[in-house]
């Protein structure tokens, strides 16, 4: 991997348990307020047509919320943005419902339930909501999905020279699947990445490979989110950005390889 993979972050969207948006998360990451335990609050996807809005799953609501927040911060036209969706799994609740149905004598699966269960469902709803016709990648790399999505987005940025919206997200599975995949709640981060600095740029990042251990967060509640929701492996980088601190952080990826991120605030 070329260590010159770099970008400017022009917008951020964020949602996690107790952290309903990026301004709240930024204040907590700065130490200005404590993280208050609460379920993830998913706003209604008003941008969707009524029929699709009724069918929208938790991951669809999550990805629309964070993607639109990041684009709004950057004043970007969502219909023109190349997107990368990265998640460690699909929609846990739909998967659970399908398994329940298949365990009965009536195995007739709802078409709506099925199409909401696939891994690219969130990307499909994004296209419906935003009328986007730009390229879209959908990536899964288990617990390394955030890193894989970031690498893909930066690669496209290098090749095409156009802004890329990375949307990394995860959701929980109900019992009994929860015992095997114990993500506690849904959460995610969206980054609007640009090849050049603008008046809205928040910081510059540059990636390189490393075998160093990933950075941990000193706040126990935030560290628990980092380790339990794969998309939030991004938190050390986001904390450096929130605090306006330049320097190097290390993010979990595919052990023994990790990702070193140089953060240069604007």
From TrEMBL:
<feature type="domain" description="Beta-ketoacyl synthase-like N-terminal">
    <location>
        <begin position="42"/>
        <end position="215"/>
    </location>
</feature>
<protein>
    <submittedName>
        <fullName>Beta-ketoacyl synthase chain length factor</fullName>
    </submittedName>
</protein>
<dbReference type="InterPro" id="IPR014030">
    <property type="entry name" value="Ketoacyl_synth_N"/>
</dbReference>
<dbReference type="Pfam" id="PF13723">
    <property type="entry name" value="Ketoacyl-synt_2"/>
</dbReference>
<dbReference type="InterPro" id="IPR016039">
    <property type="entry name" value="Thiolase-like"/>
</dbReference>
């Amino acid at each position: 991997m070329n260590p010159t993979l770099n970008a400017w972050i022009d917008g951020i969207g964020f949602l996690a348990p107790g952290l309903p948006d990026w301004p709240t998360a930024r204040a907590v990451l700065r130490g200005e307020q404590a993280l208050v335990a609460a379920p993830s609050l998913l706003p209604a996807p008003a941008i969707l047509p009524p029929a699709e809005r009724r069918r929208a799953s938790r991951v669809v609501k999550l990805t629309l919320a964070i993607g639109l927040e990041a684009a709004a911060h950057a004043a970007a036209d969502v219909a023109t943005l190349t997107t990368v969706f990265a998640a460690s799994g699909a929609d846990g609740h739909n998967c659970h419902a399908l398994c329940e149905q298949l365990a009965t004598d009536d195995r007739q699966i709802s078409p709506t339930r099925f199409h909401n269960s696939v891994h690219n469902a969130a990307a499909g709803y994004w296209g419906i909501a935003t009328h986007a016709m730009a390229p879209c990648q959908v990536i899964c790399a288990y617990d390394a999905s955030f890193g894989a999505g970031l690498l893909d987005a930066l690669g496209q940025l290098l090749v095409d020279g156009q802004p890329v919206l990375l949307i990394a997200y995860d959701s929980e599975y109900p019992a009994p699947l929860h015992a095997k995949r114990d993500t506690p709640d849904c959460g995610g981060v969206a980054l609007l990445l640009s090849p050049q600095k603008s008046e809205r740029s928040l910081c510059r990042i540059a990636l390189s490979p490393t075998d160093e251990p990933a950075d941990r967060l000193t706040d126990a509640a935030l560290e628990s989110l980092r380790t339990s929701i794969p998309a939030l492996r991004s938190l050390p980088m986001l904390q450096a950005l929130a605090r306006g601190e330049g320097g190097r952080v290390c993010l979990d990826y595919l052990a023994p390889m990790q990702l070193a991120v140089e953060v240069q605030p604007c």
